Amino acid sequence: MKTTDFAECLSVYLTMYLPGEAGLSQNTIMSYRDTFKLILSFSAEHHNLNPEKITLNDFTAEFVSEFLTWLEHDRGCSVSTRNIRLSAIRAFARYASLRKPEYVFEHQKILGLRFKKKPAPLLAHLSPELVSAVITQTNARNSYGRRDRALLSLMYDSGARVQEICDIQVSDVRTQKPYTVKLTGKGQKTRAVPIMESTALLLTEYITEQGLTANGRGDYPLFQNHQRHKLSRAGVAYILKKYCDAARILNPELPKHISPHVLRHSKAMHLLQAGVNMIYIRDFLGHVHVETTEVYAKADTEMRRKSIESAQIRIDADLPQWTADKSLMQMLIDLCGKE
């Protein structure tokens, strides 16, 4: 069977360009791959085009626009998901334009497709008391409970993204002063994050119990599942949900849906409320731009309330009765009476 230009271009893009020249992470590449799996399903379902027959000539702005509508209306995807898929498509269109310049005009029209605006979501975060209520639900009397306590404590203390937590290796943890953990974030950028002594102690006990102190085990995943493989993001989310559901019995104010990212938001908010400089919080979280970190300051209604209260000027009830000032009253009457 003859290979189509679309198949050739997409194959090289996903397997060579993205991991090689672009240097994107495996998770980002998988997200791009999933976008095109959906595109192939859409083309077969709505255009009667099997994956092996679609060409770059079929990959038009109109085709992409129909695909985005299908995502929202038929699959019920959110605006955020729609925008993520469009971002992947636009990136591919730029690449294809360089390899196949005869399609550059159509690809420029794809690049002109707009992202949809969406309302800014509320920044969900928990108070220190609620974070503690969740973590204390872990059962310290069995090994999985101790693993989960170390996991949740480190997630909060380090403010790590869930994938960063999943990717931590044993050698990334420093259990001597200064206590730190090395996190590998977006774009494979690493940063050393300080952690509390209590968290370091939990990790030390956990690493020892799991037999991870032996030579040659430094590259083992720090947090493992029943099969001794590293925890997945879904696995971490499941663990967090289990303890949130248990904590909600005594703390009904806990939100119904709490994702692992909520612990990251909570840590950032608590640092901000403690007076930590925004630049330090940016570096702690691994943000590239401080503008990304400023969202926490905008969301911190408690800090704003206290600032407003401290800046308020006291207004006395016994204000002078200006209506008794006849000269002032006459001036106002004269002023309003003029044409």
UniProtKB/TrEMBL annotation:
Domain Core-binding (CB): 4-97
Gene3D superfamilies cross-referenced by the UniProt entry: 1.10.150.130, Intergrase catalytic core
GO BP terms, alphabetized: DNA integration; DNA recombination
One Pfam family this sequence matches: Phage_int_SAM_1
PROSITE patterns: CB (PS51900), TYR_RECOMBINASE (PS51898)
InterPro entries: CB, DNA_brk_join_enz, Integrase-like_cat_sf, Integrase_catalytic, Integrase_recombinase_N, Integrase_SAM-like_N, Tyrosine_recombinase_XerCD
Alphabetical UniProt keywords: DNA integration, DNA recombination, DNA-binding
GO molecular function, one term: DNA binding
Annotated Tyr recombinase domain residues: 121-309
Entry's transmembrane regions: none
Source superkingdom: Bacteria
Record-stated family: Belongs to the 'phage' integrase family.
Reported function: Site-specific tyrosine recombinase, which acts by catalyzing the cutting and rejoining of the recombining DNA molecules.
Record protein name field: Site-specific integrase
Lineage: Bacteria, Bacillati, Bacillota, Clostridia, Eubacteriales
